[in-house]
Amino acid sequence: MSSLIVSLPLEPATGATEWAYALTPDGRTLGDHGHVPAALLPLPRGAGAEIVAVVPAQAMGWHRVTLPKGMQPGTPRLRAALEGVLEEELLDETEAVHLALQPGAKAGEPAWVATCDRAWLRHALQLLENAGRPVTRIVPEFAPEGASALVVLGDPQQAWVVASGEQGVLALPLTNAAAALLPALPEDAPRLAEPAVAALAEQMLQHKFSLQQAPQRWLQAARTRWDLAQFEFASSSRTRAFKKLSTGWGDVLRSPSWRPARWAAALVIGINLAGLNAWAWKERASLEDKRDIVQQTLRETFPQVRVVVDAPVQMEREVSLLRQQAGVASARDLDALLGALATVLPAGRTPSALDYTAGELRARGLALSAEDVRRVATQLKGLGYSAAASGDVLVVTAEGSL
User: For the segment 211-256, what is each residue's pLDDT rounded down to a tens digit?
Assistant: First the structure.
């Protein structure tokens, strides 16, 4: 699944802002990355392609809450319930803050709520959409999940240290005072730093740090289950369903882990196609046999027919000729049609005009109601005829009679 991952700038973005981005061809490996204006951001391609916005750790706040019982995620009153729970904890007015609940949260259980400036987020997303890069998912750069880790990022003039794990996310400027506020981490906990601040991190925190580029960190963030596009930032239900479907299909079509399943599906499809072809061949052969039998019957019954074009039609024509020669009436003859119609018409109803053409009788001026037509058609059907009204005309024909 190809993805464009865009890191949102901390300062309010403008038309001249250069956006930091990373491009991944499959959601797992890092491709191109850099800084370009919004209109020059590369577009992801292929099935399940998406654009993911990453909210920097410095712009996020995290709060641990317990959802009220009976309040399920996705309900219209959820936003109001979260505002009520967090009202005393938020530094800004609740209307100015965007809230997002952690995935899998359940009523009556503790859950993490992510917060950020609503106007800042809306402005950044609008600029990307105006540039033809609409965001399909929003993720935090760091989330309170997984094993504890320490990451130093930025540049020597503005370095930040972020501690993350199941206990929460803490982002502080890298200073001696901040170092004292960091939680104690296990000795083997990952400690990562961007190349520009790696030496500074080791000097101030007195520990060995492994190098990690910012795009690698954004790629990890994009692979989490988090999606901050909730409440007013949520996509329509149809768009979100399509996004999940296309994302799932993208994984199925491209992921190496799905290769055995793809081979199995291809094998099943191949076997079914072979079976369908065999069944079609058998049905075609059966149909040919039946056609040969009908043609043979026509030749044996009417030897004078030398060329068979349409056996049933030719057989009907020959039978009609025999009737005419023997003086036997056919159900399609005028007198037979008139006799059948006369037996079923309501008393006192006689047609004002009659037309007969090739086994079809048209009776005009009967003035039959819809109920009368239904009753006449039912009775004629029992006699082997069909009837239908066409305006003021009743059309009578023989059903399958030779």
Answer: 999 999 999 999 999 999 998 888 543 454 455 555 556 556 666 7
Cα–Cα distance for residue pair 161/173, rounded to 1 Å: 6
What are the distances in angstroms from CA 233 to CA 126, 130, 137, 198, 230?
11, 16, 10, 36, 5
For residue range 142-182, what is the model confidence (pLDDT) as tens digits? 999 989 999 999 999 999 999 999 999 999 999 988 888 99
State how far the Cα of 297 lies from the Cα of 294, in Å rounded to an integer.
5
What is the spatial distance between Cα 208 and Cα 202, in angstroms, rounded to a whole number? 6
Whole-prediction pTM: 0.60
